[in-house]
Protein: 3-keto steroid reductase
Organism: Multifurca ochricompacta
Amino acid sequence: MPSTNQSARPIIIVTGANNGVGFGICRRLLYNLVQKNPDDARALFPRSGAEDPGLEYPCTSLTLIMACRSRQRAEAARIQLLELFEKDVVELRGTPADLKRVSAFRANLVVAIHTLDLASVQSTLAFALEVARTYPYISHLVCNAGVAPFLSISWLLLLKQVWKNVLELNLLESVTNPRYNIQRKAMMSDDGLGWVWQCNVFGHYILCRALDTKLAASQTGPARVLWMSSLEARADAYDADDWQLVESAQPYEGTKFQMDLIRAELSRRAESSGLIRHFTVHPGVVYSSIDAALVGGVLARIKVVVFYLARWFGSLHHNISSWNGAAATVHVCLAPLAFIPIFLSAAGAPVSGDNKAEIEKDGLLPVRLHSVTDRMGRSGVALVPFYPWPDYEKEGVAWSIDVKDYTSRSSLQGENPSIEVYISYTYQWMASTRRSVKSITL
């Protein structure tokens, strides 16, 4: 079992931390960790595991690692983050004791910036090596960064979906799970891999494996790895024969579905050691720059209005702000592990119809925790079973083949292999575990 020191310094990595949901996660973490009884650390679900002391609140120190592609943008984000922290904690400085607590936390707060480009295996390994040499352990890894190659909206498809949803008396579906966003296909990274797949899935997978030793050494209890999925993750966007999603018309949705598969299998494997725990979270619908190519100007403002209308008419998924979208992630980072479900029994899952028999046959379903917001703008956390798991379990198993032996004897031990060697090895590994692999010329 891992060492547990409730007063130990959390060392948290957030990828893509300079804007959007990643920035909201950083801001919300700081606000909660300085409090005696942080709202986001409250137990929300029934006990599902053994007692876990977790962190001691208020935390007296924190190292927050902003892992970003652009150092310049990250520096600007760090300045903004610390300025917002000072504003956010004004209300927490009511008494001399409160002022002393907040001041002590601020004095022991380290917000570090490390460059990470998930579209480059070399950059990802260099980041992992730098982190491994700089910090004694990692307590949390939030795999948040992601890309979406959106081009435009197909107004014809939009009208078709709206009409279909009207007939189904489910108009909110059109602004919750859009099927009309056109995406760019056949995008390749400089490493010769599917670009969206490498940024969203494989880069984080390499990072997780390369930092395995540092995660296992966490001093705040079992390390927590959070995989950022999406409300739009869908099985019909994933093709096992095009697992890098190069030819897919929906690579964003497909890669997020892959993350669900990987996390579910890693969670199952991690149960035996108890050193590292894996979770799936998603922010719901958040207004951010990831879909900036779809609409701009007046249409962007109209979109925000539509989001607020959807929330007012009952959608819990329209969190809109990055602060509200970060609720599930921060809860999973801070709440006691005993009260964070990873799987649900079939008997406890709200299933119906023919699907129930298939789910009960396997017994357990992985869980995704997601952010929600009510009509009044109050944020919270909910969970939903990952229903496709019984049909795709073998995909998750194949994906989670352990490459730890390679990473441990290469970059993190000082060899620093060339990108060609690493990609060559990676393709050999993939070829041995997947049904179809296209060769590349290095």
Notes: The domain at 11-149+184-394 is CATH 3.40.50.720 (Rossmann fold). The longest helix spans residues 251-270. Residues 349-361, 402-425, 427-442 have pLDDT under 50 and may be disordered. The longest strand covers residues 364-373.
